[in-house]
Amino acid sequence: MIDGFGRHSVTFAALESLSPDFVKVDGSIVRKLLSNPASQKKLDAVIRVGSAAGFGVVAECVEEKEIIERLKALGVGFAQGFGVARPQAIETVAAAAATGEKHGAQRGTG
User: Which pTM was predicted?
Assistant: First the structure.
């Protein structure tokens, strides 16, 4: 997984050589998605490249219902942040993992 993609100026060429399973789009893009057309264009580019290259797109810092709806409409497959699930105590997460229980919410289109 490549984390924080889009935080700084980026090139998609690096993605070709790394062949990640997922690229996590930086929260600075996701948080401005509804108010900044440039953020949506950046996200659109990552989605298109991901579709062509075969990697999943994860949106981080998802905190609002409206952003979840926009991400889904754009075709983002995975979301992470307070709007998806609140952080859990490590003991709770470890206990769930030990029993094989799925923990937390997962939202996305695929």
Answer: 0.77
